[in-house]
Amino acid sequence: MSHIDLIPDGTMARPYRPPLGQVLETLGSDVLSAAHVPDAGLPIGEPVVHDPDDQLEDRPACVLLAVGARPSAPEAHELVRQAGARNYHAVVIKDRGADLGELIDAAREARVALLVASAGIPWRQLDALLTAAISGPGAVTTTYSSVGMGDLFALANAIATTIGGATCVEDAQGNVLAYSNVPSQEIDEIRKQGILGRKTPLRPTNRLEYSRVFRADGPVRFASLGPGHMRRLATAVRAGAQLLGFIWVLDGSPSVIPGAMRLLEDAGRIAAPHMLRSRNPSDPQRWQRAETFRALLDDEVSESAAAARLGLPPDSSVAIMAFAPARPLPQSAGAGAAVTTVVDLVSLACEAWHHEAVCTASWSAVYAMVPVPEGTTPARLVRFAADTAGSVRKSVGISLHVGVGPVAARLEEVPSSRRLADRVVRVLAETAGDAVHVATDEQVRSRIALLELVDRGDTAADRLLEPVRRMLEYDAAHSAMHAATLLAYLDAFGEAARAAAELSVHENTLRYRVRRLQELFGVDLADPTERLVIWLQLRLLHMRGEFSSVRTRLPGWNVRSQR
Known about the structure:
Elements: H1 20-27, E1 32-36, E2 47-49, E3 63-65, H2 74-85, E4 90-94, H3 101-110, E5 113-117, H4 123-134, H5 152-163, E6 167-171, E7 176-179, H6 189-197, H7 206-215, E8 220-222, E9 231-239, E10 242-251, H8 260-279, H9 284-297, H10 303-310, E11 318-325, H11 335-353, E12 358-361, E13 366-371, H12 378-396, E14 400-404, H13 414-431, E15 437-440, H14 445-455, H15 466-478, H16 482-491, H17 496-503, H18 507-521, H19 528-543
Parallel strand pairs: 2-3, 3-4, 4-5, 14-15
Antiparallel strand pairs: 1-5, 6-7, 6-10, 8-9, 9-10, 11-13, 11-14, 12-13
Helix pairs in contact: 2-3, 5-8, 9-10, 11-12, 14-19, 16-17, 16-18, 16-19, 17-18
């Protein structure tokens, strides 16, 4: 056989295979996370969808999408072993709450990476996201694919040039992430304000417009609402069920091209991996741990998978703390920065407590999970939480309520501890005013028990005592406060001075109102059983917000843009 010289050309270039660590960083743990990685530098080839009825082919370096595989089934373990034998570098399964311990062992033996996909992402979209993340620089599959991964400004310019209108890319909260600057494309006053403030300006129609885009299956057109407001096209960007953000294109003069809606739909699909990549901070490992913690809080990841991603043993003892504002923050340009600062301060304090601590933020609270060394007392956890909240107040002027859930003996108990921490925050929001306040679930257990009665619906109208029913009906018809007065009086254990101070009325006025409501509605405060039941029903109704009183406050950052 004669020797043949091979002249390199474009058709013979080696396929681009980015390292596994880069692919995971690009997509983020909301899409794909690692249960076992033998080497983060492992080169990754194209995804291959596996049909259980087909024989597994030899595909060096590729990613096997194990569609239909059940992590606990022996067939899944065998598939992982075969993937290693056939030179695959990674296998992707969906985590549906199963214990991944044995499958991780199988992956370790087969020397392949075991990756876990979010249950909410269809396999078809996962295939597309992986393909986009793995595609090499300059790969040409669509108009937009020459844009470097994560470069949202370049992507905005590519969309604007292709469709013919000034483009803006926003995150799910309406923050402006990037915008186009193509010459000769006009923008209106609203877009100008959004670029300058880096956030969609608040307008009465925002909620309706964003809701319409969110609910639509594809791009949406909006007509001009008058001077200073141009026609618009918009589409949502998603990774599975998760909303990543929005793309807005202005339709000015000249108008966008005839196929703009189809091209914008393509742009929405291609923008997903770019937005996932751009969300990752400079420390991807810290970000991925935070995202895993968020999934664990929501009970969306199994204990074994969470342990592998967090680097903690499954039987780690941890405390869950919920840090929530004592009152809603105003919707302003600086509110988002303030929340970010709170997250950073809480994270710093928790990592000083223990290097394996992890924090994450949701719309209503900042959550922390701190390992608890043996012998740690609840009082010490409360002191730590109070010191952390105090630091936040001094630094950014935000008062916090902190709920400390029961110590979880295993990671699988974290969602339950989080729910109790949330209930503590709800109790503090009603009772502690604006001051920094911290409590454990045990310290407010009686009020938590009331919340559980409320959540079960145990204040049904058909079970109210007749005096309570008549009182509420009279108050609603006459804008009176008999129910609030009686609740304050019973809360104060019959001490008129305390109840009067709570209601900001004179003590004699309070006594007159109590006598009057007993006459009007037949309330028998001398009967201890009736007194107890009346107080319980009024307390539960008040906690459900079914009549007003001076203490009506709910926690929440309240910094999301109007939708």
